[in-house]
Amino acid sequence: DVDGANCTTYYIDEDSDGFGDKFKAGVCMCSADSSKKLTALKSGDCNDGQFSVNPASPESCLTAADDNCNGTNNDVGAISCTNFYPDADKDGAGDASASAVCMCKEDPDKNLTAKTNKDCDDGNKNVKPGIKDTCATAGVDDNCDGITDAADSTGCSTYYYDLDGDGYGIGAPSCICSADPGKKFTAKQSGDCNDNNGNVKPGATEVCNGIDDNCNNSIDEDAVKTCAQVASATVKCSDSKCQIATCASKTFDIDNVYSNGCECKADSQYGIKGNSCQNYIDLGNLADTNSATSATGNLMPGEGSQWYRFRAIDNTDNNGGCDNFHVIVDFTSNPGASYQFEVYRTGSSSTAVCGDLNAMRLCQNETVHEWKTDFFTTAEASGPGALKTVKRGSKTPSPAAFSGECKCTQYQAGGGQALPGMNLCTNNSAYYYVNVHYAAGKNVTCSPYTLRVRNGI
What we know:
The chain is mostly beta strands.
């Protein structure tokens, strides 16, 4: 019965989906009436002719119907929906900071039109994934890949790795918007052959140092042009350093110091006089009247020695006087004791000494030599070698026996008998040759010596 006690409301359910037609009122009955389709205990079916449409059905994007009868079609989250993201700048890429909304179709009114959400600046339509960075927008990550002004950006320039900062790089180039000092990509050109040395690069001046300074695969070519010019010398680049090539005439490089060049100048007699016994430097005549003369010279490489000659004259002595003949050869300047000499004595002949040097040599490797007659000695010992030499002017020893040439009885060439206590003085005039050379173990020096010869001292 309809509306009977304890009746139940049933709704017409034409499609038998368990939901009655929402547009038709229910009937309260004791039991369902299948003949009249009054079988549904629930109402709400918005399309009672479609089994798949009812409040319990899921919304699907595959139909145009209101599948779940909630009053709207194709709800958010419907089956087969698509994620859409806000795209405010309409560049096709959604806002990377926004969440997806799953819909059956885009919603332009809400800017939900993008199917990806990788846009890192949804307010700039020129910034989105999939495009190339451009150098025109410095500091902007145009393609949202996390790299600003990436390599190979549109409008990039070629830079090379330049460790030493000399403007020339090495290796493969990188096309970037601007120089990258942090990564050392700063050089606009390549060709550096030593990227650890800022002085080595193409176009650099070649220096005499054993290095290919200008990276042209040659070493020290024309590098002599950079060698400093030094005194009295031409220079060269050899063994990776500037060296003296040749010295000017009569100059020498004694100390092997490049900076002062050929610092040593030969004396005025170099190559002219003094190179042999026959080609001596003449010091003239020295009378026994306290005469003296000096000569300054030096010995350059290749010069074994320097020869000098002088004539010592023994003037006539007065009876009762002493013979003043006293020849001394010495140095007044001998830097570092570098020099020594030999002295040779010959008679009236000026050339005999060159024929028999050993026979005429008075001394060897000396720095002072004397040949004199102005002495007296005691005669207590026999033989000239045993005579005791006493300087002229000393008191007469006892006994009063004299020898030597003080005092003189007369001056003659030879013969005669000396008076007791007196001596027969003779003419001791002679030529002396002096050969100056370096002492053993001494190196060539630029410092000159001064040789002095005296007579009658």
